[in-house]
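SEQUENCE AND FOLD
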Amino acid sequence: MTTPTPPSSPSPPVRGRRRAPSRIERAAGRAAALQRPRVLLALLLLLALTCVMLLDGYLRAEVGGDQRVRTGASASDVPDEILDGGPILTFRGGQATTVSVPDKTIALTFDDGPNPTWTPQVLEILEKYDVPGTFFLVGSMVSRYPGIVEDMVEQGNEVGIHTFTHVDLSYQSGSRVTREIEQTQLALAGAAGITTTLFRAPYSSQTDAIDNYSWPVYEKLGEDGYTSVFIDTDSDDWKRPGVANIVKWATPEEDEGASVLFHDAGGERAQTIEALPKYIEKMKAEGYTFTTISGVMAEQDAQGRTTQGQATQAQATQGQAALGQQPVDAGTGDHLQAAHHQATGTTLYEGKALIAAVAVAEWTVPALSVGLMVVGVAVMGRFAMMLVLARRHHRQRNRRRFSWGPPVTGPVSVVVPAYNEKECIEATLRSLARSTHPIEVIVVDDGSTDGTADIAESLGLPGVRVVRQANAGKPAALNNGVRHARCDIVVMMDGDTVFEPDTVRHLVQPFADPGVGAVAGNAKVGNRRTLIGAWQHIEYVMGFNLDRRMYDLLRCMPTIPGAIGAFRREAVLQVGGMSEDTLAEDTDITIALHRAGWRVVYQEHARAWTEAPGSLKQLWSQRYRWSYGTMQALWKHRGSLTDKGPSGRFGRVGMPLVVLFQVVTPVFAPLIDVFTAYSMIFIDFRAALLAWLAVLGVQLVCAAYAFRLDREKYRYLLMLPLQQLAYRQMMYLVLIHSCVTALTGGRLRWQKLKRTGEVGTPAGTG
């Protein structure tokens, strides 16, 4: 029987006039134009997160870190005059030369800073005693604590380069050496607006420790205008030998001058802080003066080495010019900071950009770590809740004495909205014809162009009516079906879904309880032979159906699946029918029913076999619509958070759970995978792998229990690890894409997936 719907029939187009696009067509055009930028934006967000993590790892020497330290190498290629020379190595006029610290003079140097705890205390001591210092700074620390470096320079101290990640340069390639130096220069430029010509290699000591591997590094840096600084006296404060020993070991012998090494970072430095004032007081009492490395160079120049000093300055200027830096005017610059040069041009701006990027990373990564903990707790809590409540639900509903009330035997209406379902409509209707429960079937053809309505009519099945309407979308088709329904209970299903003979009978039994307004059935993936189908099968059984058991007991079921759901016609009309306000009309009406005081339950024995998307593109399209529609529905019903009665109960119980488990947790769940991959590659592969396997084990237990409840075959669980590696990541991207769309105010239309008609009978699903 065919029942046309005149009000919705399109009027014939006027000859010679182009038909104006409909509202849906205009919305579809706008949505299509906006999708690609939003996908790119979602991918860019993930790329930005990855870059931030890599930057933070690089700053902490987790990415690209190299802990190797060379010892015992030959020094046969190093000139003897260098090995036996002073602690300052320059290449004046291309010739290697060392400079010693004058007698009764201390060049106080500090390595490994800045440190937010110890460096400010060192600076306070130096300022108190009016003593300058030379700080050899690690570039990664400079970028993390730029304010300390700025104060250090303004106080009159001198700074030098100690590489960016504190690696032994003798093991590194030429490009890595250049990168370590240039990145530290950029950090100094961004922090204090200066660059420097001073350099001290990590793990270096006196010049006699230079070997055949490190000598080429010093030569190359010398050619670039850098002065390499070593030590005469080492306080060994890093060993924490006690204050007295630190002072003793830092004291030069027989009034000799010395380049003295302390540390203001790299570990606990309380003994250094306590020893430093005592050391300064002692050395001043013995007639020593304190200066910087540039001060030593200036003093040597004043003692008759002016020519060599000019050559050194010219060489340094040449090296800085090659790096795009401007030397400070000798007439106005402080001779104690002569190694400093003003950063200009791209060096300055790139340095500030580096500092800004590091600031973002320093804030973002700890925040993400906290988010990771929250997500981890939420995920494990969800698993625990699902297991406990699903078990309770199963035992409660499968007791011999359990009953919803008197058996429901009256006829029901089955509404089948269909749009271009020629591949599936016959199997759908024939499965309904085998129903053991009395039904009438209303096929609402939503303007199909493939002859769907004709196929439905040609079958000649008893009790099947076909209602034709102009294409208006699924909600309109469902509402039209409800209007034509003759029974008090309306079952809604998709045009690609197949029911078992007992499905309708099981589905309507909960309506024996007059408080039940709707029932969610058990949707099954019929085309599960493919990899994508198997992944969705696991998701349906573990995620959707296990979730519904939990939500049923909590009385806050968020969604009745479009593939199989039953409603009291009275309840549907009370809430205004299927709304077109959202893309998830099933979620929308489910929440509306909760707010109206109706109970929504899950009937596990009412099974429907649906055709899941068969390609990644179709899957993305479907899940994008689902997740975005869910967000729309939650936003639409946000008023339930402050309501009283049943509406308020859902708002304060169901709404937070749905937001937490279906939006927030999935959005941030990629953090688990990103941090796991990061840890495997850069930190501890074994520990990270064991942690990942532990989480996978928990998921496997949940999945196995869900399969047991649904009496599914366990062999599909063999695909769970691969699902976690590939399929889940795609679902995360879809959800992030949906969030971006929601935040940018996008709109979508109901999308049609390509069907194959593969789901013919439940028995054929394997």
Remarks:
- DSSP finds 24 helices and 22 strands in the chain.
